Amino acid sequence: DEVFDVSGWDIKKALKLLYKSNPSLLEWFASPIVYKETIEASYIREVIPIYFSQKKLYCHYQRMAKTSLKYMNNEKVPVKKYLYILRCILSSQYIVNDKKQPPIEIEKLIECELPSELREDMNKLLMIKKNSNEKKYVDHISS
Known about the structure:
Radius of gyration: 17 Å
Number of strands: 2
Helix content: 55-70%
Shape: globular
Strand order of the largest sheet: 1-2
Number of helices: 7
Distance between the termini: 39 Å
Structural class: mainly alpha
């Protein structure tokens, strides 16, 4: 419904995905929003660093960024698309620099990975996204 966005995993499937360092599973467990914690989820969260593959997650984010960039040839770009690409690039950079799973929150990625001269533009994009609908378009950023 419009209040809750709930998802769950079959424990057997989740363990197989964990073994493969599945990006969706890793991001799901890294989410700061937890409605109900189970003992199984706590255990998985504890062992994630053992199975985390820098290479797999890095490649995943690079692929996502490249795929999204293919569709940015118009004069106007959806704010959501800009932020999506930015999150992928900064997550890749975080993996290279910190050798661990990047935070989910784009604000944290901007703070620790984006050069200070670009933060103001990106924070403006975040404000536009937060204060408008998902289909808000902006001009290409030249810097």
